[in-house]
Amino acid sequence: MDERTYGYTTNVRYRDLDxxxxxxxxxxxxxxxxxKGAFLEDVVGVTLDxxxxxxRSLDVDYERSIESGQQVTVDLRVESVGETSFTITYRLNxxxxxxxxxxxxxxxxxxxxxxxxxxxxxxxxxxxxxxxx
Length: 133
Fold this sequence. Notes:
By secondary structure, this protein is an alpha+beta fold. The chain is 23% helix and 37% strand.
């Protein structure tokens, strides 16, 4: 759907490391979630605290490890927005080297935990961002 990517950068923290000094694989997903939260706030105008979403699917291909002291950049792109869900693709880089590619499908829920329609305002903002507007 959208071609423009959103970039988010963070530093590796000591608590991100496993006993071998590599970033634990589940932390990659945490970096993605941080990037998604920043995107929703900066582009859509809502925070993760304000929205009720669940990840329906997650697919990660790990290319290489992230080491202590590296800077991680997550580039995300909204691939599609459906009736109640949206799909995001991610590229994670550490100091310029690709370390993982991933994809999530998140579903928006109502207060009762049932899927609800993505608001038109969200669609418009995501679309405008993707076009560079």
